[in-house]
Specification:
Distance between the termini of chain A: 23 Å
CATH superfamily of the largest domain in chain A: Dihydrodipicolinate Reductase, domain 2
Shape of chain A: globular
Order of helices and strands of chain A: HEHEHEHEHEHEHEHHEEEEEEEEEHHE
Strand order of the largest sheet of chain A: 16-15-14-13-7-12-11-8-17
Largest interface: A-C, 51 and 52 residues
Helix content of chain A: 25-40%
Largest sheet of chain A: 9 strands, mixed
Domain GFO/IDH/MocA-like oxidoreductase (chains A, B, C, D): 149-292
Number of strands of chain A: 17
Oligomer: homotetramer
Domain Gfo/Idh/MocA-like oxidoreductase N-terminal (chains A, B, C, D): 10-128
GO molecular function (chains A, B, C, D): nucleotide binding; oxidoreductase activity
Structural class of chain A: alpha/beta
Keywords (chains A, B, C, D): NAD, Oxidoreductase
CATH topology of the largest domain in chain A: Dihydrodipicolinate Reductase, domain 2
Radius of gyration of chain A: 22 Å
Region (Disordered) (chains A, B, C, D): 387-421
Number of domains of chain A: 2
Chain lengths: 421, 421, 421, 421
């Protein structure tokens, strides 16, 4: 009998099969091929509203069955986990119901479109966790090896206390005035624009890497092109010809400053208008003893400056994060053979399966997702109120002890789930 | 009935399951998930000498059955293709037998350990092709999107005539004197060292991108550390402690100069001693109207200099090769989401399946593999004869017509198989 | 008779001889050696409070005479221009008096320590200009060839309308907690910290490159290390040993967001705490048709993304700004031979001499200096008022005509003074 | 009395005033302004064949007098040093005569056009040195701070034993077929093409940085465009229109492999056909404990890989060579303010003045220049003889003692003259 058969199954139902559904499928498929897992993910059911299209997607993506109503899978005994890849406006309803039905939940980011939804989801997750049912939100970039390494190095004190954070998430897919409207430019469907879509990632990474929360913000949101062509269908950026136009109701650019719970100032920008930047998710953390920098356009590299070095030979090191000792990497290829975007989804599946088998809370939890939502909400409120500084009281810790007069006393605990093998 | 079931199957038997076997498995598995294929690859049989270990590998990698003798699969009617991932010294025998048995063959590079073997294999492939049985060699780097784009741009004349080529393949895994002996340092098993292992790749890429052959070489081979520790088992590079030492019988560094069939001078270096270079496979082609440059350490990028630009704003462009129009990329993720090392193996499977379904010769053919082998052989002969320039007569074309007095008249035909779907 | 002698002299008195005095001296000395000037700068008098030290500096730097009171040089008939390189707190008094005495003035940045001083200086410059006496402020980075090229390309419409600006000025010389107090950490002497010292540069460059002004800001200022050692003398960053400590009274980090007069949002950060960043003055401008990016750590390079390119071969171009057609460069060395930090001071001298000879207003004018000061002042007021958005009414143009619904209608006029000879 | 006046003068006569004459003038002018020198260089006489043009050049460049015959300055008592910036074919005669006349000599590279001339010059220098008259050759790139740092780090053992060297010098100014003939494409005047013009630099840097000599080579030389337009005057690359054409009699591309006296293999390429590479002089040294890499297109940076680092955080460090502790840098600007091409000429003047005042042999000596010439000569002979390996017996040391079986036993002595202040 094969080893796979010897492992208990983890039977998954996935709701939605667009971009994120394809990425999650690749994650479930790859996890047991490269990592030694305590249970075997089974791609059991794909849920889509149209049976025909769901069937075709299931064939392509490798799911055994299809359903057309997500409520049906909650009633089935042979489903252990619901993986939610639908638009954000549906997350709260499905996730809450699934948890209530005793199904573990993985929900793609953004966790919700509103703060109220996110709070309800976090509360539901707390209730479910008490009974051993777990919820996780899919901030997959945490599983890029270079980012996991950054977090480990901060936790180990390699750059000392966190002094400053600067983040950018630069894309250019709306920089063309002729790019048509889509659900992503519609506030009713998307909740917000660059802020929630990509700004959410850099807020979560700041939380993840530093082990701290954003404690308050001053923000501004801009919509640079107020009207766009109405596309018959949103199919790429080629719809220059159309004559009908409609309003863009979300932000094109989000900018905010603030500080972390440990006092470090932080600056953030998310934009869809930076011509030439395809997916430049960048984060730099300056500590009291060094710096770390990452850019997703060079995703297998982490830059480290160690201030303890002799000034004569110090400099940012370009760490190629493909060594066996690097997070997740040892399970893949020999040194020097880089990973791609989708590998984060495999690592997400691995970490989730392992946490569930161990009866532990997977991360990022719904509480982590709620923390991001609180920051986005504060940015929106600040932007609507002349950028006035807006506290996030829920993120303020109890008064810190001692006083060194210097920023950065709060240091994260060592990372737990980022090793491969 | 599912689409997959509606497609005719292509039943594969894979021989060997180490590094390359894992990569090929990932290729077969991923191809039908992301590309629209005319037939459905079926991972039918894994062949390994130990039944137990083969069974465990088959479970992990996703193969249905196992065999312990590769000759058995040649006798089976339900196998269409034999995928050979064993050490190079076994390639000739297995490939020749498989072709004779009417099985299509994919053989991992290096095609063979000697020129004589390669010649025999190419002859066998010619005979088989006459009957519709096809052979292909796995120079997978041809399927990195940035490299396929480079080849297309050369073929389109974007950089004019090819004037010069410079290649490096820099690694550092033997730079540590304490790294132990392995089959890769043993001439009997590996054939050669850096020359055949990684030098072969840059020779093939030169052939592929320029559409020309290396016509002659002057070479040198060096073994920088003549003795190394004997490892009880070769398990990483940590065996500094051992006291027994043995000889390294292959080259650590290979350097050669030469020219292409169109007259362009070319320079090559392959080394395992470049501390800090993890997998720096680099190729730069200078043409009469521009230049192209690639480095595998930044594998989603191709650099292009277009000499037709205004000198005031000209400069190497950093093309992020993740746009839908780029080779293979449109089948994966939205723009800006990079691929990794293993995606080349998916593309290899895709191109092979398509060629077989169309009854066409897949590339690189055994003739292409033989061409690389001829260059490696000439380098070895030159290195053994005081670096004297050594012609490769088989690569010399019939006399070119006309005479412009300038290097680079030979331009490759447009690429055929590098688009996704 | 020599050509130099045939040119009318421009006799200069320089006040101050520290870092900036050395740089200005190099500028005056080099200008006539590489550029064809209409008049000949004469390094006539160096002014310093201590006669001995001024004499030693004059010998080293190449000035003919010394004075110990700047008022003396205003009385001399043989001085045409006063070059002010003293600390910012003295600029207003000296510059105003020199202009009143009919001397042209070059004042190093920051133009003044307070907005009131800057306003008085700008008014004095207006009065003087009516009589043909000119004033200029030394934002020398405008004369880095790559930056002058950026400005020209924006003015020519190469990147279309300005849509967004992002700026960083990252240094690390205070990142060490043990770095001692200096005049730069003392608000009474320096006016502000990172904001005025380096933030001023990125504000001026934004004005220069875009041809627009910052129209309003939301800012925050942080002092990360509140107390530092008292150094007996400020001599490098080695004073870890001292036990006496005193307060830092300026900002270590300045962050602000805002928008330009044409509506484009902009984001700025200036810090002295970014370990590993030595002089990373960065500016990126995203337009409707492309992007430009610059980093002073790679000062001979400008990056350009042209959105009109085919998506398949588009990418940021690394323009090496050392071609004869590039601003200022033709007067120096053959293509490919980069310039350094100090060359901006030569170019400044060249542009100033030419403007004076032509009877034209040199740029940046005191009005330009005042514009920067207004932005810094608004940042400080916003930072003191919970980051609330703070308008800069003086920068608001009359209502723009028409309405395209898109940001970026305001385009700068073509550059005037940036070519070499 | 001024300090300058208190220092003894070093009175210089410079022969030639084209590109190199301008660069040397900038060196002599700048040296005493930034460095504390034991004697004061005096720019006394400029020698040129045309009195009018020499006078104009002297005015622009800052020389006091002119002469039209270099022999005249050898007769003058008030000249201490002759600085030779004429074409290479004249170097031997002028240098030999100047040394015989008791004048110190600085001669621009290439030291000579032939090996015989170089040998005669080295012999003359030996004779002169015995009497205290010194000769130096102007391989100025040795004085780029990043390169001087590289040499110091090798000498200190930071990268262990030298295992491999790879060098490229890539330019593109002849890549355009329409670029006209010039003295640089004429063997009679230039001696060779890319080999002697830029290949000489990478050979000298290899000698300098490793402390070893090239011991033998296998080379090839190619002329890619055999005929070019005859320009009425060689004035840039714009002469596409001309119809008359003439032959190119020098190499466009030089490629050679070889090994150092310590046994390390080395690979070299010099080309004028690499479109987009403006002045990419690159050298990488791999040692037993790390690597160093430099590219002149990023001249203020040295990359260092330290193999002693933890593999998890190791990576090439981008050392920004602008710190006070770096060679020469402390005399210029604060940290982070980069230098340019011409600063090497200032450093050359500084090191030469100091060596002469101390009565020491300045470096690179004529013996060092001869060593480069021997390598170039061997490359030409090898290229003319089917690339056969060609020993350079003069560079072979006496048999090394001991035997470790590993390449790289020879380590350079610590550097002497590379510090500023």
């Amino acid at each position: 009998m094969s080893q796979a058969a010897a492992r208990p199954p983890l039977r998954v139902a996935m709701v939605g099969y667009a971009f994120m559904g394809r990425a999650h499928s690749q994650g479930w498929r790859g996890a047991p091929r490269f990592f030694d897992l305590p249970s075997e993910p089974v791609m059991q059911v794909l849920v889509g509203r149209s049976a025909d299209r769901a069937r075709a997607a299931a064939d392509t993506l490798g799911w055994a069955e299809v359903e057309t109503d997500w409520r049906r899978v909650l009633e089935r005994d042979d489903i252990d986990l619901v993986d939610i890849c639908t638009p954000g406006s549906t997350h709260a309803e499905i996730a809450t119901a699934a948890l209530a039905a005793g199904k573990h939940v993985l929900v793609e980011k953004p966790m919700a479109n509103t703060l109220a939804e996110a709070e309800a989801m976090a509360a539901a997750a707390d209730r479910a966790a008490a009974g051993g049912t777990m919820a996780m939100v899919g901030f997959t970039y945490r599983r890029v090896p270079a980012i996991a390494l950054a977090r480990d190095l901060v936790a180990e004190g390699r750059i000392g206390k966190v002094r400053q954070v600067r983040c950018q998430y630069l894309q250019d897919w709306l920089a063309d005035d002729g790019a048509p409207l889509s659900w992503r430019t519609d506030k009713a469907k998307a909740g917000s624009g660059a802020l929630g879509d990509i700004g959410a990632h850099i807020v979560d990474l700041t939380h993840f890497i530093t082990g701290q929360r954003v404690a308050g913000v001053s923000g501004r949101l801009d919509t640079l092109v107020a009207e766009r062509p109405v596309a018959e269908s949103f199919s790429g950026l080629s719809g220059r010809g159309g004559s009908e136009r409609g309003p863009v109701t979300v932000d094109d650019v989000a900018m905010f400053t603030g500080e972390l719970t440990g006092g470090a100032p932080a600056i953030f920008e998310a934009t869809r208008f930076a011509w030439g930047r395809k997916n430049a998710m960048r984060i730099e953390v300056n500590g009291s003893e060094g710096s770390l920098a990452f850019d997703f356009e060079d995703m297998n590299v982490l830059s480290l400056y160690d201030a303890r070095e002799d000034a004569r030979t110090g400099g940012f090191r370009r760490i190629i994060v493909t060594e066996p000792d690097h997070p997740y990497v040892g399970s893949w290829w020999p040194a020097g053979h880089g990973l791609g975007y989708e590998h984060g989804f495999v690592h997400q599946a691995v970490d989730l399966v392992r946490a569930l088998s161990a009866g532990e809370q997977p991360t990022p939890s719904f509480a982590d997702g709620l923390a991001v939502q609180r920051v986005l909400d504060a940015v929106e409120r600040s932007a609507g109120n002349r950028s006035v500084y807006t506290e996030i009281p829920a993120h303020r810790p109890a008064p810190a002890t001692g006083s060194t007069g210097a920023v950065g006393d709060e240091v994260p605990a060592p990372a737990g789930q980022s090793r491969g093998a």
